[in-house]
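=== Structure Prediction Worksheet ===
Name of assembly: unnamed complex
Input type: mixed (protein and possibly other molecules)
Chain count: three
Listed entries:
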Amino acid sequence: MRLKLIPREEKFFDLFEQQAENVVLGAKLIKELFDDYREVEQAAMKMSRIEHEGDEIAHQIAEKVSLTFITPIDREDIHALASALDDILDFINATVVRLDLYKVSSVRDDAHRMTNIIVLAAEETLELVRELQNYKKHGVIKKRWVEIHRLENEGDTVVRAAIAKLFEQGQDPIEVIKWKEIYEHLETAIDKCEDAANIIEQVVLKNA
Amino acid sequence: MRLKLIPREEKFFDLFEQQAENVVLGAKLIKELFDDYREVEQAAMKMSRIEHEGDEIAHQIAEKVSLTFITPIDREDIHALASALDDILDFINATVVRLDLYKVSSVRDDAHRMTNIIVLAAEETLELVRELQNYKKHGVIKKRWVEIHRLENEGDTVVRAAIAKLFEQGQDPIEVIKWKEIYEHLETAIDKCEDAANIIEQVVLKNA
Amino acid sequence: MRLKLIPREEKFFDLFEQQAENVVLGAKLIKELFDDYREVEQAAMKMSRIEHEGDEIAHQIAEKVSLTFITPIDREDIHALASALDDILDFINATVVRLDLYKVSSVRDDAHRMTNIIVLAAEETLELVRELQNYKKHGVIKKRWVEIHRLENEGDTVVRAAIAKLFEQGQDPIEVIKWKEIYEHLETAIDKCEDAANIIEQVVLKNA
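=== Predicted Assembly ===
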Protein backbone atom coordinates (compact mmCIF):
# COMPACT_ATOMS: atom_id res chain seq x y z
CA MET A 1 0.00 0.00 0.00
CA ARG A 2 2.82 2.37 0.92
CA LEU A 3 4.34 1.86 -2.52
CA LYS A 4 1.25 3.18 -4.23
CA LEU A 5 1.60 6.46 -2.42
CA ILE A 6 5.21 7.13 -3.35
CA PRO A 7 4.79 7.66 -7.11
CA ARG A 8 1.87 9.96 -6.36
CA GLU A 9 4.03 12.10 -4.13
CA GLU A 10 6.75 12.33 -6.75
CA LYS A 11 4.14 13.32 -9.30
CA PHE A 12 3.43 16.57 -7.39
CA PHE A 13 7.09 17.57 -7.54
CA ASP A 14 7.25 16.65 -11.24
CA LEU A 15 4.24 18.83 -11.99
CA PHE A 16 5.71 21.76 -10.08
CA GLU A 17 8.96 21.34 -11.97
CA GLN A 18 7.09 21.34 -15.30
CA GLN A 19 5.21 24.43 -14.22
CA ALA A 20 8.43 26.25 -13.22
CA GLU A 21 10.15 25.22 -16.49
CA ASN A 22 7.20 26.68 -18.34
CA VAL A 23 7.64 29.93 -16.37
CA VAL A 24 11.29 30.09 -17.52
CA LEU A 25 10.12 29.58 -21.13
CA GLY A 26 7.70 32.50 -20.79
CA ALA A 27 10.34 34.70 -19.14
CA LYS A 28 12.82 33.99 -21.94
CA LEU A 29 10.21 34.69 -24.60
CA ILE A 30 9.42 38.14 -23.23
CA LYS A 31 13.14 38.96 -22.85
CA GLU A 32 13.80 37.93 -26.47
CA LEU A 33 10.84 40.00 -27.66
CA PHE A 34 12.15 43.06 -25.81
CA ASP A 35 15.72 42.51 -27.08
CA ASP A 36 14.57 42.25 -30.69
CA TYR A 37 11.27 44.08 -30.80
CA ARG A 38 9.51 42.76 -33.91
CA GLU A 39 6.66 40.36 -34.68
CA VAL A 40 4.71 41.27 -31.54
CA GLU A 41 1.55 39.52 -32.64
CA GLN A 42 3.46 36.31 -33.30
CA ALA A 43 5.16 36.51 -29.90
CA ALA A 44 1.74 37.11 -28.31
CA MET A 45 0.45 33.91 -29.88
CA LYS A 46 3.46 31.90 -28.70
CA MET A 47 3.11 33.40 -25.22
CA SER A 48 -0.58 32.55 -25.17
CA ARG A 49 0.27 28.89 -25.88
CA ILE A 50 2.78 28.88 -23.00
CA GLU A 51 0.18 30.41 -20.72
CA HIS A 52 -2.43 27.81 -21.70
CA GLU A 53 0.09 25.07 -21.04
CA GLY A 54 0.59 26.66 -17.60
CA ASP A 55 -3.17 26.65 -16.94
CA GLU A 56 -3.26 23.00 -17.93
CA ILE A 57 -0.50 22.05 -15.47
CA ALA A 58 -2.12 24.14 -12.70
CA HIS A 59 -5.40 22.33 -13.37
CA GLN A 60 -3.65 18.94 -13.16
CA ILE A 61 -2.13 19.92 -9.81
CA ALA A 62 -5.53 21.03 -8.45
CA GLU A 63 -7.13 17.79 -9.64
CA LYS A 64 -4.36 15.75 -8.07
CA VAL A 65 -4.79 17.56 -4.73
CA SER A 66 -8.51 16.80 -4.79
CA LEU A 67 -7.94 13.11 -5.46
CA THR A 68 -4.94 12.47 -3.18
CA PHE A 69 -5.64 11.59 0.41
CA ILE A 70 -2.17 12.20 1.82
CA THR A 71 -0.21 14.88 0.03
CA PRO A 72 3.61 15.16 0.38
CA ILE A 73 3.31 18.80 1.46
CA ASP A 74 0.29 20.61 2.92
CA ARG A 75 -2.65 21.03 0.59
CA GLU A 76 -2.80 24.80 1.19
CA ASP A 77 0.89 25.13 0.31
CA ILE A 78 0.40 23.15 -2.90
CA HIS A 79 -2.45 25.47 -3.90
CA ALA A 80 -0.48 28.58 -2.95
CA LEU A 81 2.66 27.51 -4.83
CA ALA A 82 0.74 26.39 -7.94
CA SER A 83 -1.12 29.65 -8.01
CA ALA A 84 2.02 31.82 -7.48
CA LEU A 85 3.75 30.03 -10.39
CA ASP A 86 0.62 30.42 -12.52
CA ASP A 87 0.46 34.13 -11.66
CA ILE A 88 4.04 34.73 -12.88
CA LEU A 89 3.04 33.53 -16.35
CA ASP A 90 -0.28 35.40 -16.24
CA PHE A 91 1.51 38.71 -15.72
CA ILE A 92 4.17 38.00 -18.34
CA ASN A 93 1.41 37.05 -20.76
CA ALA A 94 -0.70 40.10 -19.85
CA THR A 95 2.32 42.30 -20.63
CA VAL A 96 2.82 40.80 -24.09
CA VAL A 97 -0.93 41.03 -24.78
CA ARG A 98 -0.80 44.76 -23.95
CA LEU A 99 2.17 45.42 -26.23
CA ASP A 100 0.03 43.99 -29.01
CA LEU A 101 -3.30 45.64 -28.03
CA TYR A 102 -1.79 49.06 -27.42
CA LYS A 103 0.21 48.87 -30.65
CA VAL A 104 3.39 49.76 -28.77
CA SER A 105 5.86 50.56 -31.56
CA SER A 106 9.11 50.45 -29.61
CA VAL A 107 10.15 49.42 -26.12
CA ARG A 108 11.62 51.79 -23.53
CA ASP A 109 15.14 51.14 -22.21
CA ASP A 110 14.05 50.58 -18.60
CA ALA A 111 11.84 47.73 -19.75
CA HIS A 112 14.89 45.78 -20.98
CA ARG A 113 16.34 45.88 -17.49
CA MET A 114 13.06 44.49 -16.14
CA THR A 115 12.92 41.54 -18.56
CA ASN A 116 16.55 40.66 -17.74
CA ILE A 117 15.60 40.51 -14.06
CA ILE A 118 12.50 38.41 -14.84
CA VAL A 119 14.60 35.72 -16.56
CA LEU A 120 17.01 35.57 -13.61
CA ALA A 121 14.15 35.43 -11.07
CA ALA A 122 12.36 32.72 -13.08
CA GLU A 123 15.55 30.63 -13.21
CA GLU A 124 16.08 30.96 -9.45
CA THR A 125 12.42 29.98 -8.95
CA LEU A 126 12.92 26.84 -11.07
CA GLU A 127 15.99 25.88 -9.03
CA LEU A 128 14.08 26.43 -5.78
CA VAL A 129 11.24 24.23 -7.04
CA ARG A 130 13.81 21.53 -7.90
CA GLU A 131 15.26 21.79 -4.36
CA LEU A 132 11.80 21.47 -2.83
CA GLN A 133 12.22 17.71 -2.42
CA ASN A 134 15.52 18.06 -0.57
CA TYR A 135 14.35 19.35 2.77
CA LYS A 136 17.78 18.72 4.22
CA LYS A 137 19.66 21.21 2.05
CA HIS A 138 18.24 24.22 3.79
CA GLY A 139 21.44 26.21 3.14
CA VAL A 140 21.09 25.96 -0.65
CA ILE A 141 17.44 27.00 -0.51
CA LYS A 142 18.19 29.95 1.77
CA LYS A 143 20.84 31.22 -0.67
CA ARG A 144 18.47 31.12 -3.65
CA TRP A 145 15.68 32.66 -1.60
CA VAL A 146 17.98 35.58 -0.65
CA GLU A 147 18.91 35.99 -4.33
CA ILE A 148 15.24 36.23 -5.39
CA HIS A 149 14.67 38.89 -2.74
CA ARG A 150 17.66 40.80 -4.08
CA LEU A 151 16.26 40.56 -7.62
CA GLU A 152 12.84 41.71 -6.42
CA ASN A 153 14.40 44.74 -4.74
CA GLU A 154 16.38 45.52 -7.88
CA GLY A 155 13.21 45.23 -10.00
CA ASP A 156 11.45 47.55 -7.58
CA THR A 157 14.17 50.19 -7.87
CA VAL A 158 14.24 49.92 -11.67
CA VAL A 159 10.46 50.20 -12.04
CA ARG A 160 10.21 53.14 -9.64
CA ALA A 161 12.86 55.05 -11.55
CA ALA A 162 11.16 54.10 -14.83
CA ILE A 163 7.74 55.34 -13.68
CA ALA A 164 9.20 58.55 -12.23
CA LYS A 165 10.89 59.18 -15.62
CA LEU A 166 7.60 58.48 -17.41
CA PHE A 167 5.87 61.24 -15.46
CA GLU A 168 8.81 63.64 -15.50
CA GLN A 169 9.25 63.75 -19.22
CA GLY A 170 5.90 65.48 -19.78
CA GLN A 171 4.84 62.54 -21.91
CA ASP A 172 1.70 62.09 -23.89
CA PRO A 173 -0.90 60.87 -21.31
CA ILE A 174 -1.77 57.90 -23.53
CA GLU A 175 1.89 56.80 -23.42
CA VAL A 176 1.85 57.20 -19.64
CA ILE A 177 -1.25 55.00 -19.36
CA LYS A 178 0.26 52.30 -21.58
CA TRP A 179 3.74 52.18 -20.06
CA LYS A 180 2.71 52.59 -16.45
CA GLU A 181 0.63 49.43 -16.85
CA ILE A 182 3.39 47.54 -18.69
CA TYR A 183 5.97 48.41 -16.00
CA GLU A 184 3.58 47.46 -13.21
CA HIS A 185 2.84 44.10 -14.84
CA LEU A 186 6.54 43.33 -15.20
CA GLU A 187 7.07 44.27 -11.55
CA THR A 188 4.19 42.02 -10.45
CA ALA A 189 5.64 39.09 -12.43
CA ILE A 190 8.85 39.45 -10.36
CA ASP A 191 6.84 39.84 -7.13
CA LYS A 192 5.14 36.53 -7.88
CA CYS A 193 8.56 34.82 -8.17
CA GLU A 194 9.26 36.16 -4.68
CA ASP A 195 5.88 34.84 -3.48
CA ALA A 196 6.74 31.38 -4.83
CA ALA A 197 10.14 31.54 -3.09
CA ASN A 198 8.51 32.52 0.21
CA ILE A 199 6.09 29.60 0.03
CA ILE A 200 8.91 27.16 -0.69
CA GLU A 201 10.96 28.57 2.20
CA GLN A 202 8.00 28.09 4.60
CA VAL A 203 7.38 24.53 3.36
CA VAL A 204 11.02 23.60 3.87
CA LEU A 205 11.03 25.19 7.33
CA LYS A 206 7.88 23.27 8.31
CA ASN A 207 9.27 19.95 7.13
CA ALA A 208 12.85 20.44 8.32
CA MET B 1 -28.66 13.61 16.20
CA ARG B 2 -28.11 12.97 12.50
CA LEU B 3 -31.37 14.76 11.73
CA LYS B 4 -30.13 17.97 13.28
CA LEU B 5 -27.25 18.06 10.86
CA ILE B 6 -29.28 17.64 7.69
CA PRO B 7 -31.17 20.94 7.76
CA ARG B 8 -27.90 22.71 8.45
CA GLU B 9 -26.32 21.17 5.40
CA GLU B 10 -29.25 22.15 3.23
CA LYS B 11 -29.04 25.68 4.59
CA PHE B 12 -25.59 26.12 3.00
CA PHE B 13 -26.90 25.19 -0.41
CA ASP B 14 -29.93 27.47 0.06
CA LEU B 15 -27.68 30.39 0.93
CA PHE B 16 -25.49 29.76 -2.10
CA GLU B 17 -28.57 29.60 -4.30
CA GLN B 18 -29.81 32.91 -2.86
CA GLN B 19 -26.40 34.44 -3.47
CA ALA B 20 -26.30 33.21 -7.08
CA GLU B 21 -29.86 34.44 -7.70
CA ASN B 22 -28.77 37.82 -6.42
CA VAL B 23 -25.86 37.76 -8.89
CA VAL B 24 -28.31 37.15 -11.75
CA LEU B 25 -30.38 40.13 -10.53
CA GLY B 26 -27.29 42.35 -10.58
CA ALA B 27 -26.25 41.07 -14.03
CA LYS B 28 -29.72 41.79 -15.44
CA LEU B 29 -29.76 45.25 -13.91
CA ILE B 30 -26.50 46.26 -15.58
CA LYS B 31 -27.62 44.81 -18.91
CA GLU B 32 -30.89 46.76 -18.74
CA LEU B 33 -29.02 49.94 -17.85
CA PHE B 34 -26.71 49.51 -20.84
CA ASP B 35 -29.62 48.67 -23.18
CA ASP B 36 -31.55 51.76 -22.14
CA TYR B 37 -28.93 54.16 -20.83
CA ARG B 38 -30.85 56.60 -18.61
CA GLU B 39 -31.31 57.23 -14.90
CA VAL B 40 -27.79 56.12 -14.03
CA GLU B 41 -27.94 57.43 -10.49
CA GLN B 42 -31.17 55.52 -9.83
CA ALA B 43 -29.67 52.32 -11.27
CA ALA B 44 -26.60 52.86 -9.06
CA MET B 45 -28.84 53.02 -5.99
CA LYS B 46 -30.70 49.84 -6.97
CA MET B 47 -27.40 48.09 -7.68
CA SER B 48 -26.04 49.21 -4.33
CA ARG B 49 -29.01 47.56 -2.61
CA ILE B 50 -28.38 44.31 -4.49
CA GLU B 51 -24.72 44.45 -3.52
CA HIS B 52 -25.55 45.02 0.15
CA GLU B 53 -27.96 42.08 0.03
CA GLY B 54 -25.04 40.05 -1.40
CA ASP B 55 -22.75 41.15 1.44
CA GLU B 56 -25.45 40.13 3.91
CA ILE B 57 -25.75 36.61 2.43
CA ALA B 58 -21.95 36.25 2.28
CA HIS B 59 -21.79 37.25 5.94
CA GLN B 60 -24.46 34.66 6.83
CA ILE B 61 -22.48 31.98 5.03
CA ALA B 62 -19.26 32.94 6.88
CA GLU B 63 -21.09 32.90 10.21
CA LYS B 64 -22.63 29.52 9.45
CA VAL B 65 -19.20 28.07 8.57
CA SER B 66 -17.82 29.32 11.90
CA LEU B 67 -20.68 27.77 13.85
CA THR B 68 -21.04 24.45 12.00
CA PHE B 69 -18.85 21.58 13.11
CA ILE B 70 -19.29 19.36 10.07
CA THR B 71 -19.89 21.22 6.82
CA PRO B 72 -21.39 19.45 3.76
CA ILE B 73 -18.46 20.56 1.62
CA ASP B 74 -14.96 21.64 2.74
CA ARG B 75 -14.80 24.88 4.68
CA GLU B 76 -12.17 26.36 2.36
CA ASP B 77 -14.38 25.60 -0.67
CA ILE B 78 -17.37 27.27 1.01
CA HIS B 79 -15.29 30.39 1.65
CA ALA B 80 -13.85 30.38 -1.86
CA LEU B 81 -17.25 29.94 -3.54
CA ALA B 82 -18.98 32.55 -1.35
CA SER B 83 -16.22 35.01 -2.08
CA ALA B 84 -16.20 34.35 -5.85
CA LEU B 85 -19.97 34.93 -5.99
CA ASP B 86 -19.59 38.06 -3.88
CA ASP B 87 -16.83 39.32 -6.18
CA ILE B 88 -19.05 39.02 -9.28
CA LEU B 89 -21.51 41.47 -7.73
CA ASP B 90 -18.72 43.73 -6.44
CA PHE B 91 -17.37 44.20 -9.95
CA ILE B 92 -20.80 44.71 -11.51
CA ASN B 93 -21.56 47.25 -8.79
CA ALA B 94 -18.17 48.96 -9.17
CA THR B 95 -18.91 49.37 -12.90
CA VAL B 96 -22.28 51.02 -12.29
CA VAL B 97 -20.74 53.27 -9.60
CA ARG B 98 -18.12 54.43 -12.12
CA LEU B 99 -20.70 55.22 -14.82
CA ASP B 100 -22.27 57.53 -12.24
CA LEU B 101 -19.04 59.02 -10.80
CA TYR B 102 -17.42 59.61 -14.19
CA LYS B 103 -20.64 61.13 -15.55
CA VAL B 104 -20.47 58.78 -18.55
CA SER B 105 -23.03 60.24 -20.93
CA SER B 106 -23.44 57.32 -23.33
CA VAL B 107 -22.28 53.74 -23.46
CA ARG B 108 -19.95 52.34 -26.10
CA ASP B 109 -21.18 49.52 -28.35
CA ASP B 110 -18.62 46.96 -27.17
CA ALA B 111 -19.91 47.36 -23.63
CA HIS B 112 -23.32 46.03 -24.68
CA ARG B 113 -21.72 42.83 -25.84
CA MET B 114 -20.03 42.49 -22.47
CA THR B 115 -23.22 42.92 -20.43
CA ASN B 116 -24.97 40.34 -22.62
CA ILE B 117 -22.20 37.87 -21.80
CA ILE B 118 -22.37 38.74 -18.09
CA VAL B 119 -26.08 37.81 -17.93
CA LEU B 120 -25.42 34.48 -19.66
CA ALA B 121 -22.45 33.70 -17.41
CA ALA B 122 -24.43 34.64 -14.28
CA GLU B 123 -27.29 32.34 -15.35
CA GLU B 124 -24.90 29.45 -15.95
CA THR B 125 -23.33 30.12 -12.56
CA LEU B 126 -26.75 29.96 -10.89
CA GLU B 127 -27.49 26.63 -12.59
CA LEU B 128 -24.13 25.27 -11.49
CA VAL B 129 -24.80 26.33 -7.90
CA ARG B 130 -28.17 24.56 -8.11
CA GLU B 131 -26.43 21.41 -9.37
CA LEU B 132 -23.90 21.56 -6.54
CA GLN B 133 -25.99 19.21 -4.40
CA ASN B 134 -26.20 16.58 -7.13
CA TYR B 135 -22.70 15.22 -7.09
CA LYS B 136 -23.79 12.35 -9.29
CA LYS B 137 -24.73 14.41 -12.32
CA HIS B 138 -21.16 15.20 -13.20
CA GLY B 139 -22.03 15.29 -16.91
CA VAL B 140 -24.49 18.18 -16.49
CA ILE B 141 -22.00 20.15 -14.42
CA LYS B 142 -19.19 19.57 -16.90
CA LYS B 143 -21.36 20.90 -19.74
CA ARG B 144 -22.20 24.12 -17.88
CA TRP B 145 -18.61 24.51 -16.77
CA VAL B 146 -17.45 24.27 -20.40
CA GLU B 147 -20.06 26.87 -21.38
CA ILE B 148 -18.82 29.34 -18.76
CA HIS B 149 -15.29 28.90 -20.05
CA ARG B 150 -16.54 29.59 -23.57
CA LEU B 151 -18.28 32.74 -22.34
CA GLU B 152 -15.17 33.87 -20.50
CA ASN B 153 -13.10 33.44 -23.66
CA GLU B 154 -15.69 35.35 -25.65
CA GLY B 155 -15.66 38.15 -23.05
CA ASP B 156 -11.88 38.23 -23.24
CA THR B 157 -11.91 38.61 -27.01
CA VAL B 158 -14.59 41.31 -26.90
CA VAL B 159 -12.80 43.32 -24.22
CA ARG B 160 -9.42 43.09 -25.93
CA ALA B 161 -10.87 44.35 -29.19
CA ALA B 162 -12.73 47.08 -27.28
CA ILE B 163 -9.58 48.28 -25.51
CA ALA B 164 -7.50 48.16 -28.71
CA LYS B 165 -10.19 50.31 -30.38
CA LEU B 166 -10.13 52.72 -27.44
CA PHE B 167 -6.41 53.35 -27.93
CA GLU B 168 -6.51 53.32 -31.74
CA GLN B 169 -9.11 56.00 -32.13
CA GLY B 170 -6.83 58.70 -30.72
CA GLN B 171 -9.37 59.33 -28.00
CA ASP B 172 -9.37 61.93 -25.32
CA PRO B 173 -7.11 60.46 -22.56
CA ILE B 174 -9.83 61.04 -19.96
CA GLU B 175 -12.20 58.86 -22.01
CA VAL B 176 -9.49 56.20 -22.25
CA ILE B 177 -9.03 56.23 -18.47
CA LYS B 178 -12.77 55.91 -17.85
CA TRP B 179 -13.58 53.22 -20.41
CA LYS B 180 -10.47 51.13 -19.90
CA GLU B 181 -11.52 50.76 -16.27
CA ILE B 182 -15.16 50.05 -17.13
CA TYR B 183 -14.18 47.35 -19.64
CA GLU B 184 -11.73 45.77 -17.22
CA HIS B 185 -14.35 45.67 -14.46
CA LEU B 186 -16.86 43.98 -16.77
CA GLU B 187 -14.20 41.46 -17.79
CA THR B 188 -13.34 40.73 -14.16
CA ALA B 189 -17.04 40.15 -13.35
CA ILE B 190 -17.06 37.41 -16.00
CA ASP B 191 -13.73 36.02 -14.74
CA LYS B 192 -15.29 35.66 -11.29
CA CYS B 193 -18.14 33.58 -12.77
CA GLU B 194 -15.44 31.30 -14.18
CA ASP B 195 -13.74 31.17 -10.76
CA ALA B 196 -17.04 30.11 -9.16
CA ALA B 197 -17.50 27.43 -11.85
CA ASN B 198 -13.97 26.12 -11.25
CA ILE B 199 -14.56 25.84 -7.51
CA ILE B 200 -17.83 23.96 -8.07
CA GLU B 201 -16.12 21.62 -10.52
CA GLN B 202 -13.39 20.83 -7.98
CA VAL B 203 -15.94 20.27 -5.19
CA VAL B 204 -17.93 17.85 -7.33
CA LEU B 205 -14.75 16.03 -8.37
CA LYS B 206 -13.65 15.67 -4.74
CA ASN B 207 -17.03 14.32 -3.62
CA ALA B 208 -17.69 12.15 -6.67
CA MET C 1 4.16 20.29 29.19
CA ARG C 2 1.09 22.49 29.22
CA LEU C 3 3.16 25.35 30.59
CA LYS C 4 5.42 25.33 27.57
CA LEU C 5 2.49 25.96 25.30
CA ILE C 6 1.15 28.99 27.12
CA PRO C 7 4.01 31.44 26.43
CA ARG C 8 3.89 30.41 22.79
CA GLU C 9 0.23 31.25 22.56
CA GLU C 10 0.78 34.64 24.14
CA LYS C 11 3.59 35.31 21.68
CA PHE C 12 1.10 35.26 18.76
CA PHE C 13 -1.03 37.92 20.38
CA ASP C 14 2.08 39.99 21.18
CA LEU C 15 3.23 39.84 17.58
CA PHE C 16 -0.22 40.88 16.32
CA GLU C 17 -0.22 43.78 18.76
CA GLN C 18 3.22 44.87 17.55
CA GLN C 19 2.02 44.61 13.97
CA ALA C 20 -1.09 46.71 14.70
CA GLU C 21 0.96 49.32 16.60
CA ASN C 22 3.20 49.56 13.58
CA VAL C 23 0.11 50.14 11.40
CA VAL C 24 -0.90 53.05 13.67
CA LEU C 25 2.63 54.50 13.30
CA GLY C 26 2.34 54.35 9.51
CA ALA C 27 -1.16 55.87 9.57
CA LYS C 28 0.03 58.77 11.73
CA LEU C 29 3.05 59.34 9.51
CA ILE C 30 0.91 59.72 6.37
CA LYS C 31 -1.54 62.01 8.16
CA GLU C 32 1.31 64.23 9.38
CA LEU C 33 2.78 64.35 5.90
CA PHE C 34 -0.56 65.42 4.43
CA ASP C 35 -1.12 68.00 7.18
CA ASP C 36 2.27 69.57 6.64
CA TYR C 37 3.23 68.67 3.09
CA ARG C 38 7.01 69.04 2.96
CA GLU C 39 10.03 66.73 2.91
CA VAL C 40 8.23 64.01 0.94
CA GLU C 41 11.38 62.03 0.20
CA GLN C 42 12.30 61.97 3.90
CA ALA C 43 8.78 60.83 4.84
CA ALA C 44 9.02 58.12 2.16
CA MET C 45 12.22 56.83 3.73
CA LYS C 46 10.67 56.78 7.22
CA MET C 47 7.58 55.05 5.86
CA SER C 48 9.74 52.48 4.09
CA ARG C 49 11.39 51.62 7.42
CA ILE C 50 7.99 51.17 9.06
CA GLU C 51 6.91 48.94 6.19
CA HIS C 52 10.05 46.80 6.45
CA GLU C 53 9.46 46.47 10.18
CA GLY C 54 5.93 45.29 9.29
CA ASP C 55 7.30 42.71 6.84
CA GLU C 56 9.65 41.49 9.54
CA ILE C 57 6.81 40.98 12.06
CA ALA C 58 4.64 39.28 9.41
CA HIS C 59 7.54 36.95 8.65
CA GLN C 60 7.95 36.14 12.36
CA ILE C 61 4.24 35.32 12.59
CA ALA C 62 4.44 33.03 9.54
CA GLU C 63 7.49 31.28 10.95
CA LYS C 64 5.80 30.83 14.31
CA VAL C 65 2.72 29.30 12.64
CA SER C 66 4.93 26.82 10.79
CA LEU C 67 6.74 25.78 13.96
CA THR C 68 3.80 25.69 16.40
CA PHE C 69 1.81 22.49 16.61
CA ILE C 70 -1.25 23.86 18.38
CA THR C 71 -2.01 27.50 17.62
CA PRO C 72 -4.30 29.57 19.90
CA ILE C 73 -6.52 30.49 16.94
CA ASP C 74 -6.90 28.71 13.61
CA ARG C 75 -3.84 28.78 11.37
CA GLU C 76 -5.82 30.15 8.42
CA ASP C 77 -7.13 33.00 10.59
CA ILE C 78 -3.61 33.85 11.77
CA HIS C 79 -2.42 34.02 8.16
CA ALA C 80 -5.45 36.05 7.08
CA LEU C 81 -5.13 38.56 9.94
CA ALA C 82 -1.36 38.94 9.56
CA SER C 83 -1.76 39.53 5.86
CA ALA C 84 -4.63 42.06 6.28
CA LEU C 85 -2.53 44.06 8.77
CA ASP C 86 0.46 43.85 6.45
CA ASP C 87 -1.69 45.04 3.53
CA ILE C 88 -2.79 48.19 5.41
CA LEU C 89 0.84 49.29 5.67
CA ASP C 90 1.61 48.25 2.10
CA PHE C 91 -1.09 50.55 0.76
CA ILE C 92 -0.12 53.45 3.04
CA ASN C 93 3.49 52.98 1.97
CA ALA C 94 2.56 52.68 -1.73
CA THR C 95 0.71 56.02 -1.42
CA VAL C 96 3.73 57.81 0.07
CA VAL C 97 6.00 56.24 -2.56
CA ARG C 98 3.72 57.61 -5.30
CA LEU C 99 3.70 61.14 -3.87
CA ASP C 100 7.47 61.02 -4.17
CA LEU C 101 7.69 59.28 -7.59
CA TYR C 102 5.01 61.45 -9.20
CA LYS C 103 6.58 64.60 -7.76
CA VAL C 104 3.20 65.64 -6.35
CA SER C 105 3.74 69.27 -5.36
CA SER C 106 0.69 69.81 -3.13
CA VAL C 107 -2.02 67.63 -1.67
CA ARG C 108 -5.71 67.93 -2.53
CA ASP C 109 -8.18 68.77 0.24
CA ASP C 110 -10.14 65.52 -0.05
CA ALA C 111 -6.97 63.57 0.66
CA HIS C 112 -6.73 65.17 4.13
CA ARG C 113 -10.12 63.77 5.00
CA MET C 114 -8.94 60.33 3.92
CA THR C 115 -5.78 60.35 6.06
CA ASN C 116 -7.83 61.46 9.09
CA ILE C 117 -10.07 58.43 8.57
CA ILE C 118 -7.06 56.13 8.13
CA VAL C 119 -5.66 57.12 11.55
CA LEU C 120 -9.04 56.49 13.22
CA ALA C 121 -9.48 53.14 11.46
CA ALA C 122 -5.92 52.07 12.35
CA GLU C 123 -6.50 52.96 16.01
CA GLU C 124 -9.76 50.95 16.09
CA THR C 125 -7.90 48.05 14.46
CA LEU C 126 -5.22 48.17 17.15
CA GLU C 127 -7.88 48.12 19.89
CA LEU C 128 -9.61 45.17 18.21
CA VAL C 129 -6.32 43.28 18.02
CA ARG C 130 -5.81 43.98 21.75
CA GLU C 131 -9.30 42.63 22.49
CA LEU C 132 -8.61 39.48 20.47
CA GLN C 133 -7.52 37.61 23.59
CA ASN C 134 -10.70 38.46 25.48
CA TYR C 135 -13.21 36.24 23.72
CA LYS C 136 -15.73 36.96 26.43
CA LYS C 137 -16.06 40.68 25.80
CA HIS C 138 -17.95 40.22 22.57
CA GLY C 139 -19.89 43.44 23.18
CA VAL C 140 -16.76 45.61 23.13
CA ILE C 141 -15.51 43.94 19.97
CA LYS C 142 -18.86 44.34 18.22
CA LYS C 143 -18.87 48.09 19.00
CA ARG C 144 -15.40 48.63 17.53
CA TRP C 145 -16.23 46.46 14.54
CA VAL C 146 -19.32 48.60 13.83
CA GLU C 147 -17.16 51.74 14.12
CA ILE C 148 -14.65 50.45 11.56
CA HIS C 149 -17.50 49.71 9.16
CA ARG C 150 -18.78 53.25 9.68
CA LEU C 151 -15.31 54.64 8.95
CA GLU C 152 -14.99 52.47 5.84
CA ASN C 153 -18.34 53.77 4.56
CA GLU C 154 -17.27 57.34 5.28
CA GLY C 155 -13.98 56.76 3.44
CA ASP C 156 -15.93 55.33 0.52
CA THR C 157 -18.16 58.39 0.31
CA VAL C 158 -15.21 60.78 0.57
CA VAL C 159 -13.19 59.00 -2.11
CA ARG C 160 -16.13 58.75 -4.51
CA ALA C 161 -16.80 62.47 -4.22
CA ALA C 162 -13.08 63.16 -4.60
CA ILE C 163 -12.78 61.06 -7.77
CA ALA C 164 -15.97 62.56 -9.25
CA LYS C 165 -14.50 66.03 -8.63
CA LEU C 166 -11.23 64.97 -10.25
CA PHE C 167 -13.02 64.09 -13.48
CA GLU C 168 -15.47 66.99 -13.37
CA GLN C 169 -12.91 69.73 -13.17
CA GLY C 170 -11.56 69.03 -16.65
CA GLN C 171 -8.16 68.36 -15.10
CA ASP C 172 -4.94 67.61 -16.83
CA PRO C 173 -5.08 63.83 -17.58
CA ILE C 174 -1.71 63.30 -15.90
CA GLU C 175 -3.13 64.79 -12.68
CA VAL C 176 -6.15 62.49 -13.00
CA ILE C 177 -3.89 59.44 -13.38
CA LYS C 178 -1.82 60.40 -10.34
CA TRP C 179 -4.62 61.37 -7.98
CA LYS C 180 -7.02 58.62 -8.95
CA GLU C 181 -4.36 56.12 -7.92
CA ILE C 182 -3.53 57.97 -4.70
CA TYR C 183 -7.19 58.11 -3.68
CA GLU C 184 -7.72 54.45 -4.52
CA HIS C 185 -4.68 53.43 -2.47
CA LEU C 186 -5.92 55.40 0.54
CA GLU C 187 -9.34 53.78 0.16
CA THR C 188 -7.81 50.31 -0.02
CA ALA C 189 -5.79 50.97 3.16
CA ILE C 190 -9.09 51.63 4.96
CA ASP C 191 -10.70 48.57 3.34
CA LYS C 192 -7.89 46.45 4.74
CA CYS C 193 -8.64 47.74 8.27
CA GLU C 194 -12.20 46.52 7.70
CA ASP C 195 -10.87 43.15 6.49
CA ALA C 196 -8.80 42.82 9.68
CA ALA C 197 -11.87 43.71 11.78
CA ASN C 198 -13.98 41.10 9.94
CA ILE C 199 -11.40 38.38 10.58
CA ILE C 200 -11.22 39.25 14.29
CA GLU C 201 -15.01 39.22 14.54
CA GLN C 202 -15.16 35.74 12.95
CA VAL C 203 -12.40 34.43 15.25
CA VAL C 204 -14.18 35.71 18.34
CA LEU C 205 -17.47 34.25 17.13
CA LYS C 206 -15.86 30.86 16.54
CA ASN C 207 -14.22 30.78 19.95
CA ALA C 208 -17.12 32.29 21.92
